[in-house]
Amino acid sequence: MKKPIIYSLVILCLFFVQSAIAQKKDSLRYEVMLNSNMLDSTLKKNRFISAIDISPGKYITLSTGDKVYLLGWGGMSQLGNRIEGNPISSFAYTKDGLLMAIRNNVLSCMNSQGNLDTLVQLPRANMGVAAGKDVMYLFDQSGNDKQYKLYAFAKGGKYKQLLVSPRPITTVVEMSDSLYLAIGSGVFSFSPKSNALNLVAGFQKESEIKSMTVDSKNGILYIATQEGVYAFQDNSLVYVTGDFGGGMIKYFNGGLIIFNPVTCDIIRIVNIDKSIKF
Predict the structure, then answer these.
(1) Which own/partner contact pairs does 241-245 have at CB distance under 8 Å and 24+ positions apart?
(2) Quick one: which of 18, 29, 90 has its CA closest to 61?
(3) 222, 214 in Cβ contact below 8 A?
(4) Contact (CB, 8 A) for 18 and 31
(5) pLDDT in tens, 124-137
(6) Per-residue pLDDT tens digits for 195-240
(7) Domain-wise residue ranges, the chain
(8) What is the CATH number of domain 2-272?
(9) Which secondary structure element, helix H or strand E, spans residue 21, and what is its range?
């Protein structure tokens, strides 16, 4: 299922540099996981979609729409086969390691042969998908009818509508017993049991939220806007960095990964939780 890609020697040099830096285990540091100079000519021509996740094998997962890639310190490899027909617009792994992908108005799952099997037809094209503890969340990221819906998709192929928003839902994450949604420039908590939707953090109107991720160990919600990255905990919002604004973010193994699909830059900020003062 994995097809190797010839990779720049820069990444090998970078590995040894980062290994030396890693001797200071508790220090805040930046690791360059990817930039355009590390890509071969084929990947430079194909733009990555605005989605990122971590595979069961602990590899960063990216997609160009027609292909899925795994990125690690040793380089990049293709996962599965080339996708024919409608390209991937969003993807996420389930908690048990299955890769789910949305293509137009279809939710698919990658099988053991590396192909995408259709699971269910969706009510709208190009929805977002995010993993929960027990379900997958499907949500409307685009449209023009002011009816943007959030669904819970359970095993067995059934999905249930949870709420309707007047604006597109950018992303959805779970933290503890709460569900957090990014809608426009606001972060909302939602309780499926009570159907209560509450604003917990807001930004200026023009600062729409691009991505969110969770450090479940420390109970920190990270929020990325065009201006920068913020951390939210116990109703306190802290500005973290403005160096990598507008990117897709993912918290993993003690570090915050920031991915810019336009420039192909991936930066990992290690021990970021130790530098935040709430």
Answers:
(1) 241/269
(2) 90
(3) yes
(4) yes
(5) 999 999 999 999 99
(6) 889 999 999 988 899 999 999 999 999 999 989 999 999 999 999 9
(7) 2-272
(8) 2.120.10.30
(9) helix 10-21
